[in-house]
Amino acid sequence: MLQEPPAVAALHVDMRLPTAAVSTDLPSQPPVLLLHGWASTSAYWEPLATELLDAGRTVWIVDLPGYHRGDVLPPGFQWTLEAAADSVAAVAVRNASPVHIAGHSMGGSVALTLAAANPELVASVALIGMVPAPPNEVFRSILESQLRQGFIDDATRAKCMKAWFGALSPEDHRLLSRGFELPFEVLGPSGLAAMAGVAADVPEKVTAPTLVIAGVGDRLRSPEQAQAFVAASPLRRLVAIPDAGHSVHWERPRACALALGAFWNESRQPPA
């Protein structure tokens, strides 16, 4: 039996079909692959996934390498954006046609890397709470200190959760902080990849239509950074969502789903 090369990790994918029939041809449209961010779990996609499924979209929720509980990474695997993108590409090829990729934070970097290397697999890219830009200096200093000590301490976890989600109920806090329970062998290298960001030439290689969804109150990516990125290419669009921060898909899932749906419908139209 042929085996995948060591550089590619077999990923857990939660594949979901639309919850109800709709009166359009949307069920025949490509699936939407959702890629989570650093120290996160796929659980935080649930509100957005529900909206997309109710709108007639097929949704594939992907756990990035090492992020699914019980994952064992293959020998020789090194956690880089390129290796993660190659692993997601092995998921995307399961569909007969190009897929929509939506990535939050670090997942957005993986999405861009995939779209640049494998344009034939990608119908569109959506970046949620992410544009290629130097990392927030506070986040950089925090993460570097944690990497030196070899574990993520409680104070750092609390700072990250506050920056990403703001105020949460105790139940939601327990749910969303589970990403920090992953082995440091995954959190450390993936954190370095997230902090380094995409290679400088990656954005210009992406030929797929690209949407940036930005929370107006995002503390990790400023509105100015989002606007500058979008202004650099006619293929890019920006939707700024008020009353939301870094995790706009969790905070405002309905608004996020509407922005995505409108973008996908627009980007599939033939040119005039």
TrEMBL record:
Alphabetized InterPro entries for the sequence: AB_hydrolase_1, AB_hydrolase_fold, AB_hydrolase_sf
AB hydrolase-1 domain span? 32-257
The protein depicted here goes by the name Alpha/beta hydrolase
Q: Which organism is it from?
A: Arthrobacter gyeryongensis
Alphabetical UniProt keywords: Hydrolase
Q: Which SUPFAM superfamilies match?
A: alpha/beta-Hydrolases
What Gene3D superfamilies does the record tag this protein with?
Answer: alpha/beta hydrolase
GO terms assigned for molecular function: hydrolase activity
One matching Pfam family, short form? Abhydrolase_6
Superkingdom, natural source:
Bacteria
